[in-house]
Structures are given as structure tokens and as C-alpha cells.
Amino acid sequence: MTATLRVSNLSKTYGSGDHAVHAVRNVTFESDAGSFITVVGPSGSGKTTLLAMVGALLQPTEGVIELDGRDVSRLSGRQQAQFRREGVGYVFQSNNLIPYLTARENLLLMRTISGKNGREGRERAEQLLDELGLTSRADAVATELSGGERQRVAIARALMNDPRVVLVDEPTASLDSERGKQVVESLVREVKGRNKLGIMVTHDMAMAEMTDRILEMRDGEMTERNRPSIPDASA
Ligand SMILES: Nc1ncnc2c1ncn2[C@@H]1O[C@H](COP(=O)(O)OP(=O)(O)OP(=O)(O)O)[C@@H](O)[C@H]1O
Ligand SMILES: [Mg+2]
Fold first, then answer.
1. Is the pTM of this model over 0.85?
2. Is the distance from the beta carbon of residue 21 to the nearest atom of ligand 1 less than 6 Å?
3. Homologous superfamily of 4-224 in CATH?
4. CB of 229 sitting under 6 A from ligand 1
5. Is the C-beta atom of 49 inside 6 A of ligand 1?
6. 43 CA to middle of ligand 1, Å?
7. Cβ within 8 Å of residue 167, ≥6 positions away
8. What's the CA-to-centroid distance between 7 and ligand 1, angstroms?
9. What is the mean pLDDT, run by run of 10 residues, along the chain of 235 residues?
């Protein structure tokens, strides 16, 4: 089944009256499964707020977020919890691993949470550890990992449950450019190969260029960013 994301007239206002912050203003865009979008824009422009709403972590003030025709912002509490657990993989700006568990245990915990234990989960964990270059660090406790290693564990963890939507906020911030490129390549492969919807926030244009489409946030408003045109070979 193909996932389609349709975001219509989405707004988020924090606070009210004189203290109101219009973090996201009337944002509309669509995306198909297998498509990987980058969101760029200055600090405070609403990128994380947008991602949180798409992942059903934050209630929009106005607007609709439809995934496969279902309005995810208006699910019941229980449906919303299930969607967050099974439908979405998140990588936050701060990666929030469980500090007392090893890299591998942080991944396996996801399977436990969604009630799918067993061999399939263990194989998936090993595959992701390998893909993200973490096999040799799999038994290290999270506090013993470098910032970049932790970030890669967080990405692997987000992919564990095979979510429909993958949301990643600054996944390459603590990685050098070669490692960053590999991580984004893994994400692109995952999104394309498994027909997911991917949305990544980054400040790094080299990473953005590896995705299908670049959307730009500015003061809460979104515009499509046109790439420098590639000369048309057929012309
Ligand atoms: N919980 C909150 N309460 C009030 N204001 C908030 C809250 N979260 C974010 N904001 C404000 O909303 C605006 C958008 O914040 P957001 O975190 O979405 O920006 P961002 O584009 O992700 O920035 P950065 O690149 O620094 O991560 C900012 O002005 C921010 O201060
Ligand atoms: Mg942010």
C-alpha cells in the first residue's frame, strides 16, 4: 500500500494574546510514498514544530494532516498512541537514547514496546547496526558512545518498527561530512526501498541535495525551493 501525506492549511500557535508565537502558518504540501523531503530554514522558523505535528506529537491549532486518507491530528487518544508507536519513526534533535542500555538494547527495546519480540526483531537490529556502521559498538552502553554514534543508534532505532513515516530532525548535526553522507544515504535507501515517507530537517545543503525535494520554512511559512536547474540533455 502506498502512503500519501497531505498537509492542508496547517498552523500552530504557541501561547495566546500578546505572547502568541505563530510557529507554523498555513502550511500546505503533499508527498507520496517513496519520497524523501528536506525541510530547511533558519532557527526558529517552525521546522521542528511542523515535524512534531506530522508525527502526531503535537496538536495543530488549525489544519489537517492526512496520511493514507486518515486525519492523524484527529485520532482518538488510543489510535494516536498506536500511530506514534507503529506508524512513525522519529529522530529528535536531541537523540534521547536510554543511557543504561547498550546500542543493541536500545534497538531491541522498540520491538518490545510494539509487542513484537523474537528473531525477526533481532535480525532487523543486526541489519540496522551493520547499515549504520555500528556493529563494533553494539555492546557499548549509550553513555560510552560518541555523539555521532548515539545519533546513528537513534536513527537505527527509529527504523526498527518499519514505520510508514520517518521524521528526522538534524540527523547529521554531530557527524562529520563523510559519516553524515552515509547516514543520509541509509535513510534514502530505507525510504525508497521500503516505500516510506521521509521528512528530514537539516541545515546542510549537501545533505538536502541528496533528497527528492527541498521545502523552505521562513517565519512559519513554507515555500518550495527550486534547485539550480540541471541542463536538460534532450534540449
Ligand atoms: N513549546 C513552545 N512554546 C512556545 N514557543 C515555542 C515552543 N516550541 C517552539 N516555540 C517557538 O516556536 C518557533 C518555532 O520553533 P521550532 O522549534 O519549530 O523552530 P525550528 O525551525 O525547529 O528551529 P531550530 O532550527 O533552532 O531547531 C520559535 O519561535 C520557538 O521559540
Ligand atoms: Mg528544530
1. yes
2. yes
3. P-loop containing nucleotide triphosphate hydrolases (3.40.50.300)
4. no
5. yes
6. 8
7. 51, 54, 55, 88, 89, 90, 91, 158, 199, 200
8. 19
9. 83 95 97 95 96 93 94 89 89 84 93 74 93 95 92 93 92 84 90 94 93 96 76 53
